[in-house]
Predict the 3D structure of the following.
Amino acid sequence: MYIRFKLKLFLIVMYFFVCGHAPWGQHEVYRQIHMLVMCSKKDDGAFEFTKNIKVIFDEYLPEAKARVARARDTERLVDLLITNQIPLAIISNNLLIKLTNENSKDYKNLLEHAKTLYSFKNMFLIVNHDFPKDYIEQIIESLDKASRNNHNIVKFVKKNNLSIDYDSSVLKKIKF
C-alpha cells in the first residue's frame, strides 16, 4: 500500500512537472502582449535605430509595450515578417537598395508581402499585409505626434520611387 501511494505521488508530481514547465505556446502569448519591432543583426544601424523607436513608442504608445527583436539575418527577418510571426520591422535604406540590386528571393517576398508604414531619413518601418488597420493608424499617429513634439529621429520623410509601397492610410494621416 505504501508503494502504491509513492507511485501515485510520483505520477502526480511528474504530471505537473511536464505540464507546468512546457514552454510551447509562450512565444504566442508574449507576442500578443508586446508589440515586437524587428530588425536584422546584419543591417548596419538598424538595431540602434530600433531601440530609439522603442523609446518613442514607450512614450507615445505605451499600451503597445514595444520590444526590440533581432533576426539573425535578412532572410530570417523576411521569413518572420511574411509568416506574421513578427509583423513589424525596421530596415535600412542601404539594405533595401542591396536587396533591390540583388533581386533576391527576400526582395521578391518583401514586394509581395510587405508595405511601408513609415519612412525615416535612412530607415523604413514595414509591416506585412495582415497587420490590422487600427494598429497601423495608432502607430502612424504616435510617430507623427512624436515628430511634431521635436523628436527629429521620427520625422516622416516621404520617399518617391519607393519599391515597397506605402500603406494606403499613411499618406492620408501624415500632414505635410
In short: Residues 12 and 141 are 52 Å apart (CA to CA).
